[in-house]
């Protein structure tokens, strides 16, 4: 057995996977633990016990060694990728002080004092003060400081989930610079904590520099597995833990993307379109691009927050029949949904969906809502399901065009990853809507593979990232656009979908005024 295997821990929203890859990107072993993403004690809240995350990580790792004790000796290094934007407060002993606030949480910190002084004046002169107020309201640390000041007073370190798990594995308060995705004083352009004079320290005013972990670049060593972590996880003590990146960034290189003209669609709980860029490019100013899994590179991103969560929503609301059939056959419900898609022609007979099921920063306006228009008596739940997939693809195409305009680089092909990429029907209609080929990587575990690529470079198994990506990734299948379907989609996109938000936006604003949802930030 080779001694160059890499253990990649992928801690996602729905599950924790412990994955072993060889230097050619083949998955050698896998242990998966399904987790409860969050619990809610109030409407809109999403929290989880940090120790539950750690126990699930240990359980996933221990599952690898059952009946395969020789596998341990073949592991050359360990790496970690996690869900984005989930902060954890810990005390001086490293113990969590409160539940982690999951990235799906919708609470807002109302009543945060506006940024003052010179920065406040500049924000008002630049007419971005409302954007800054929304940023303050969305920051979890501001909510904790306002509503649980006793917790904030005891906070020794404020960590992302990646930093918390790294501490549990190595005993060090250190994290990857490429995992800092959330409401933090992080300078995305320099990929390090912001300078002391930066405006972000006023936006995230409760936080002090000493409360943050040390940052190292992706592919660098974070520390070594401690004896205590070894006992809990079964990972051999002393193995190096190599810095990777947040799960979306790892998905991109795991899908084989390192050139600027390839777009990466992540059809997961959150749907995103990302590219790899050597330049700092804000697709939706002033939102920054995220740090890539390759140090010094950036991932400009367009995000639909609920994304393929909408498939779960459809399953819960409309797919009782498929749930019964799937239970009888012992398969996943989603495996039956392609039949629904194929019952309906391209364009869903005029049923169009705008997939903003959660208030969105898409247009720097939190008034955005979801919409489904064009109903007629011919439409069934199959049309609704296809319209969901088409709506997500329309939104991603809009993101592609926005990205091209901002970057000056045309996207020539697409890679698809995430749970939604399992659906052949979803990828075919995506190719038809974009008018571009869409390729699926050889593994669905692209975020884990991307983390393993970081580790392979860090462990000197490959001299650089292009070499590692070429060696460890390949394509399983490509979907070519159907010209007739693309012609239909092109007209619906240009003549209807692109006009929907502009036409509906005044009505969305009225809904917000009448109902108070979401909260109005002045």
| Sheet/helix structural class | alpha+beta
Strand sequence of the main sheet, in spatial order?
3-2-1-5-14-13
- Annotation, overall tally of beta strands: 24
Separation of the first and last Cα atoms:
62 Å
Helix content: 25-40%
Task: Label the CATH architecture of the largest domain.
Answer: 2-Layer Sandwich
Task: Work out the strand percent.
Answer: 15-25%
- CATH fold call of the largest domain: Nucleotidyltransferase, domain 5
Anisotropy-based shape: globular
Please tell me the total number of domains: 2
Q: Poorly predicted ranges (pLDDT <50, ≥5 residues)?
A: none
In CATH, the homologous superfamily of the largest domain goes by the name ATPase, nucleotide binding domain
For the biggest sheet, the summary is: 6 strands, mixed
Rg for CA atoms: 23 Å
Mean pLDDT score, rounded?
94
- Class of the largest domain in CATH? Alpha Beta
Summed up, the helix count is 18
Assembly annotation: single chain
How does this structure look, described?
The chain is an alpha+beta fold and 522 residues long. The chain has two domains: 239 residues, Nucleotidyltransferase, domain 5 (2-Layer Sandwich); 243 residues, Nucleotidyltransferase, domain 5 (2-Layer Sandwich). 39% of the residues lie in helices and 19% in strands. It has 18 helices and 24 strands. The strands form eight sheets. Strands 3-2-1-5-14-13 form a six-stranded mixed β-sheet, with helices on both faces. A six-stranded mixed β-sheet has the order 19-16-15-22-23-24, sandwiched between helices. Strand 22, helix 15 and strand 23 form a beta-alpha-beta unit. The termini are far apart. The mean pLDDT is 94.
